[in-house]
Fold this sequence. Notes:
This protein is about 30% helix and about 25% strand. With about 400 residues, it is an alpha/beta fold. It folds into two domains: about 5-120 and about 310-335, 3-Layer(aba) Sandwich (Rossmann fold); about 125-305, Dihydrodipicolinate Reductase, domain 2 (2-Layer Sandwich). The strands form four sheets. The chain has a nine-stranded mixed beta sheet with strand order 16-15-14-13-7-12-11-8-19. The chain has a six-stranded parallel beta sheet with strand order 3-2-1-4-5-6, sandwiched between helices. Helix 4 runs parallel beside helix 5 (about 100-110) and helix 5 packs antiparallel against helix 9.
Amino acid sequence: MQPVRIGLVGAGDISPVYLNAIARSPALDLRAIATRTPQAIAQTAARFGARAATVDELLADDTIELVVNLTPGVAHEAINAAALEAGKHIYSEKPFALSHETARQLADLAESRGLLIGSAPDTFYGSAHQAARRALDTGAIGKPVFGSSFLGLPGLELFHPSPEAFYRPGGEPPFDAGPYYTTMWINLLGPVKRVFSVSGAGRAERTILRGARRGTRFPVTVDTTFNTVLEFAEASVSFIISLDVVVPTLRPGELFGSDGILAMADPMFFGGQPAVTAPPQPRTDLPTADQGFATPNRHDHTGRVVADYRGAGLVDLALAIRTGSRHRTGGEFIVHSVEVMEAIVRSATSRTVVELQSTCERPATIDPVADAALIALTASPFDLVDNASTH
C-alpha cells in the first residue's frame, strides 16, 4: 500500500503521540507540521522528516492528502472546514465540531467532494472494548437493561499545563473526556435516542498546577459536573462526569442485563480487563489477548501499565482512502457523536429532554483476521521501557 501523505496541524501536548504513531506506521507518510509559529517547531519537524509550515502553506500543498487536526477543540470546526475546502481528507482530534449542525455541514461537504473524515477517540478499537462488545453480542448477559459510568477528577489542571480551555465554552467535560465514554456506549448499544442532563460547578476559579505557569489562577466560566441519562433503543445509561471530585474516582462502566452484568475497562485506553458476572457462574474475566491492540505499551500518569494505540483510527481511515474499505469513525458516526456531546450540555442548560435528530450504525467490530492489515499497520506510539524510566 502506498502510504497516505499527511500534514499535521497543531503542536500541543498530544502531538508527540501522533508524530510517533505516524512515523512508525508504514501506512502513513508525514510531510509537514503546521502551527502559527513554524519556526518554533522546525527542529521537531526535521526530526520526523517533515517541514515546518503555516496552516495556509500546508493546505496549499497538493502533495498532502490527509490533514490531522490536533488544534484546541474550539478551533476544530474552522480547520476541518478549511482542509475540506482545500480538497484534503480529515482526521480530527475530538470534538470534530462543537454542534450537530456544523458537524452535519462538514460531513455533507466531505461527501460532496468525495473526501473522507474521521475522528478520535478511537480507544473503542482496543482489545478490552472489543471483548466486551463480543460478549454482549453473543448474549453473555442476556437483554441489556441499564448501565452506568462515572468519571470524577479534581480537574484537568492535575495533568495539563494549559488547562484554561477546558473551563471555557466548548471545553466542557462532555466535549473533552466525555467522548471516550459516549463512544464506548455507542459501540456497545448503538445510537442514542434521548438525553437528559443536569449540571453544576464547584469552583469559580482554578489554579494551574504544572509547567512554567504553575500557580497562575484563571476563571471557570462553564459547568464542570454533568449528571446525564442516555437513552438507547434497548437500554438506558446513567453517566456522571465531573471535575469537582477531590480524589480521582473511576467506574468505567457496567451494563446490567437480564441474565448477567458486563463490566467494562477504562475507555480512555485500549486495554484493560472486562468481565462478566452471570449466575450461577462467578465473575469471569473476558479474554483479550486474541484481540488487536492488547499489548501494554505505556504507563499512565499514575504509573499503571496500559495499552494505548492512539492512531488506530487514523490508520483505519488511511486504509479506507487507499482500498475503499469502510472505516469506523465515518461521517454519520461523527455527526451522531457530536450531537450526543452537544445534547448533554444543551439539556443541562435548558433542563429539558433532548431528542436526537441524527443516528448511526454501530461501528464494525475489530476482527483479528479481517482487520489484520489495520492491526499490523498501527504502530505503538509509546516505548514502554523508556516511559517506565520516568516513574
